[in-house]
Design goal:
The complex is a heterodimer of chains A (429) and B (143). In chain A, the strands form 5 sheets. In chain A, strands 1, 2, 3 and 14 form a 4-stranded mixed beta sheet that branches. In chain A, 44% of the residues lie in helices and 17% in strands. Chain A is globular and about 70 Å long. Chain A has helices at 43-46, 55-60, 67-82, 88-118, 124-130, 132-153, 173-177, 180-197, 240-243, 269-276, 282-290, 303-324, 373-392, 397-409, 415-418, and strands at residues 3-8, 18-25, 28-36, 162-163, 166-167, 212-215, 226-229, 234-235, 244-247, 256-259, 340-348, 351-359, 365-371, 424-428. Chain A has one domain: Orthogonal Bundle (Cytochrome-c3 Hydrogenase, chain B). In chain A, α3 (67-82) runs antiparallel to α4, α4 (88-118) runs antiparallel to α12 (303-324) and α13 (373-392) packs antiparallel against α14 (397-409). Chain A has 429 residues and is an alpha+beta fold. With 143 residues, chain B is α/β, with parallel strands linked by helices. Helix content of chain B is 33%, strand content 21%. Chain B has 4 helices and 5 strands; from the N terminus they run βαβαββαβα. In chain B, strands 2-1-3-5-4 form a 5-stranded mixed beta sheet, covered by helices on one side. In chain B, α1 links the parallel β1 (4-8) and β2 (33-36). The longest helix of chain B is centred in the C-terminal third of the chain and has 16 residues, at 127-142. The radius of gyration of chain B is 14 Å and the shape is globular. Classes of the chains: A alpha+beta (429), B alpha/beta (143).
Chain lengths: 429, 143
C-alpha cells in the first residue's frame, strides 16, 4: 500500500498562520487536519476589569481587515447590557460603515488573493501582469471601501469615531455626499468584476451544508438580526450558546464551533446568500443570475462569485444610505453604569461574529466571550477538505495540494481573528 | 528630498515597529512622514500621489540583526521573501511589484530594511535594531 503525505507548512494568501496535513493509505483517507498555530491572543481574558466602553476599541484590534465586525458586536452587547436603544440614524450610519468593510475585505480576498487560484497564478502580482485592468478596478473598489470607513470611522482601519451608543461625531453632509460619485461608479464596476470572474473554470464540488447566518428585517443581513439556519433554526442572538458550542482540539489554537447536535455548519457569504437571497436587491439578483448562480450555491469554489454579488449589494446599500443621509444629533446615546449582560452578533465578511459580555455595577467587564467566524467554520473546512481529497485523490501531490489550498481559501479564513491558520502535509501510504 | 517617508510595521510587535519608530521621529523633525500598517493595496494608492517615496520597514531575511539593506525599487524587483509579510499576505514587495506591473510606481522609490531580531508581542526595539535605526535616522535627516 502506498502512503501519500501532503503537507503545507504555511498557507499562502490567507490571513494568519495555519497549515494543512493530509495522510492517505492507498485510496483510504487516514487523516485530514486543518491546523491553526497562530498563537492565542487572550483578548477575552485581558478585557476583564476594563470599562465596558473600551470593548469596541479593544476588540477592533483583533483584526485589521474586519474591525467593524468587532466594534459593532461589542457595541451592541454593551448597549443591551446598559439598556441603550440607539436611534435609526445611528443604525443607518453603522450599516453604511459596515458596507465599507464588506467592500474592502471582499475585494481584497476575491480579486487579489482568491482569483489567482482560478488563473493558475500564484499571486496578485502575476494577475496584474496578465489582467491589469481587472486589478486596477479591484484596487479602486477596495479604496472605495476604505474611504467609506475613513470618512465615517475617522480612519480606514481600527476606527476612532465609533463608540458604545453610536458615534463621537456624525460626519458632515458634504463628507457623505462626496462619496456618492465613486459609489455610483462602483455598482457597475462590482457587477463587471463578478461577470469576469464567472468565466473562470470552477472545480466540480457540492457540499451538503447547514447554512447559518443572520436574518435582518427586510434587508440583506449585515449589522443585526436573528440567527437562522437552513435547517429551520430562528433564534434571538442571546440564545446563541443554547444552540452552538465550541471545543478545543489539540491541532488548533482556535476553538472549533459546532451546532448543539455536534454538526459542523457553514457561516459566511454562501450561508448569508442561501438564507437571504430574496432580500438582495433586484440588480444584485440579476448579477447573480448572469453569473449562473441560483438562489442557493453549494459549490464552495463559487464563493468568489457570491462575494462579488455581495460587493455590488453593499455598494448599492451604501449609495442608498448616503443619498438619504443628514447629519444628526445626538450622535450617540449614553446611559449610567449598571450591572448586566449583553449579546451582539453581526455579519463579518467571513460570517457571523458573536460577542457576549457581563458587566458589574461600575460597568466593568467581568466576563467576555467572542466567537469569530473562522472558529465556527473550522470543522466545515475539514469536512470540505475530506470531500475534495476523496474526489480528487487521483491528482498528483502538487495538484492535490493546490486543490486543498484552494478549498481553504474558499473560506477567506481570518486566522488571527480565530486564535484566539496554513501548513499542508499530505501523507500517502 | 523625498516628499513622503512611510514607516511600515506594528509597534506592538517589537522590532516590527522600527518603521513607525523612524517615521514618528522624521515627522517630529518636520519632514513629511507617516506610519502605515502595511496593507499593500493602500501603499499603491500612495504611490500614485507622491513622486519620491522612501519606505522604512523591518526585514526578516536571516541576516544579522540590525543589518541595513537599501533597495532602489525602480531599478530592480523587490525580493518578496525579504519583508515581513503583512496582513492577508499582500505586503510591501507585492505592492511594489503589482504597481510596477500596472505602471504605477513613483519616479523614485527607495526601501530601507533593517533586519529585526524580536517579533514577539511587546513594545521596544532590540539593541542592534535600535542602534541601526538611530544611524539611519541621522542619515535621513541630512538628506
Amino acid at each position: 500500500m502506498t502512503t501519500r503525505t501532503l503537507q503545507v507548512d504555511a498557507l499562502a494568501r490567507v490571513e494568519g498562520e495555519g497549515a494543512l496535513y493530509v495522510k492517505l493509505n492507498g485510496d483510504e483517507i487516514d487523516t485530514v487536519e486543518f491546523r491553526i498555530f497562530e498563537p492565542p491572543r487572550f483578548f477575552e481574558a485581558f478585557m476583564q476589569g476594563r470599562d465596558c466602553h473600551e470593548a469596541p476599541d479593544i476588540t477592533s484590534r483583533i483584526c485589521g481587515i474586519c474591525p467593524i465586525a468587532y466594534v459593532m458586536g461589542a457595541s451592541h452587547a454593551m448597549e443591551q447590557a446598559l439598556g441603550i436603544e440607539v436611534t435609526q440614524p445611528i443604525k443607518d450610519l453603522r450599516r453604511m460603515i459596515y458596507c465599507g468593510e464588506w467592500i474592502q475585505s471582499h475585494v481584497l480576498h476575491a480579486a487579489m488573493l482568491h482569483a489567482p487560484d482560478f488563473l493558475n497564478l500564484h499571486d496578485a502580482m502575476a494577475i496584474a501582469k496578465v489582467e491589469p485592468e481587472l486589478v486596477k478596478t479591484a484596487l479602486r473598489l477596495k479604496k472605495l471601501g476604505n474611504t467609506l470607513m475613513e470618512v465615517i470611522g475617522g480612519r480606514s482601519v481600527h476606527p476612532v469615531n465609533t463608540r458604545v451608543g453610536g458615534f463621537y461625531k456624525a460626519p458632515s453632509a458634504d463628507a457623505i455626499a462626496g462619496l456618492i460619485p465613486e459609489l455610483e461608479w462602483g455598482v457597475q464596476a462590482a457587477r463587471d468584476t463578478a461577470l469576469a470572474f464567472a468565466k473562470f473554470d470552477f472545480p466540480d464540488d457540492e457540499g451538503d451544508y447547514i447554512f447559518v447566518s443572520l436574518s435582518q428585517q427586510q434587508v440583506y443581513p449585515i449589522d443585526e438580526g436573528n440567527i437562522v439556519s437552513s435547517t429551520g433554526l430562528d433564534i434571538d442572538v442571546a440564545d446563541f450558546s443554547d444552540h452552538f458550542y465550541e471545543t478545543h482540539v489539540e491541532r488548533s489554537n482556535a476553538l472549533h464551533g459546532h451546532m448543539k447536535d455536534g454538526s459542523a455548519y457553514l457561516t459566511g457569504p454562501l450561508a448569508r446568500y442561501a438564507n437571504n437571497f430574496d432580500k438582495l436587491s433586484p440588480t444584485a439578483k440579476q448579477t447573480a443570475e448572469d453569473c449562473g448562480l441560483g438562489p442557493v450555491v453549494t459549490n464552495p469554489f463559487k464563493s468568489i462569485l457570491v462575494r462579488m454579488v455581495e460587493v455590488q449589494y453593499a455598494i448599492e446599500e451604501a449609495l442608498r444610505l448616503a443619498r438619504a443621509y443628514q447629519p444628526f444629533e445626538p450622535s450617540f446615546i449614553d446611559a449610567p453604569p449598571r450591572a448586566g449582560s449583553g449579546h451582539g452578533c453581526t455579519e463579518a465578511p467571513r460570517g457571523i461574529c458573536y460577542h457576549r459580555y457581563s458587566i458589574d455595577d461600575d460597568a466593568r467587564i467581568t466576563h467576555a466571550t467572542i466567537v469569530p467566524p473562522t472558529s465556527q467554520n473550522q470543522p466545515q473546512i475539514e469536512v470540505d477538505l475530506t470531500r475534495v481529497v476523496r474526489r480528487y485523490m487521483d491528482l498528483d501531490d502538487d495538484a492535490l495540494r493546490w486543490r486543498c489550498e484552494q478549498t481553504i481559501r474558499n473560506y477567506d479564513p481570518c486566522i488571527s481573528c480565530a486564535t484566539h491558520f496554513l501548513k499542508l502535509t499530505v501523507e500517502r501510504t | 528630498m523625498p516628499n513622503l517617508h512611510i514607516g511600515i510595521g506594528n509597534p506592538f510587535r517589537r522590532d516590527d515597529g522600527v518603521g513607525p519608530w523612524l517615521a514618528t521621529r522624521l515627522a517630529q523633525a518636520g519632514l513629511n512622514a507617516i506610519t502605515h500598517e502595511g496593507d499593500g493595496t493602500r501603499l499603491i494608492d500612495l504611490f500614485a500621489d507622491h513622486p519620491n517615496i522612501v519606505i522604512l520597514d523591518a526585514s526578516r531575511s536571516g541576516a544579522a540583526p540590525g543589518k541595513l539593506t537599501e533597495f532602489n525599487a525602480i531599478a530592480a524587483p523587490v525580493p518578496a521573501e525579504f519583508f515581513h509579510y503583512s496582513t492577508h499576505r499582500f505586503g510591501v514587495a507585492e505592492a511594489v511589484e503589482t504597481a510596477r506591473a500596472l505602471g504605477g510606481l513613483p519616479d523614485r522609490l527607495t526601501l530601507f530594511a533593517i533586519e529585526g531580531r524580536e517579533f514577539s508581542h511587546g513594545q521596544g526595539l532590540s539593541p542592534p535594531v535600535a542602534a541601526t535605526a538611530e544611524r539611519l535616522l541621522g542619515r535621513l535627516l541630512e538628506r
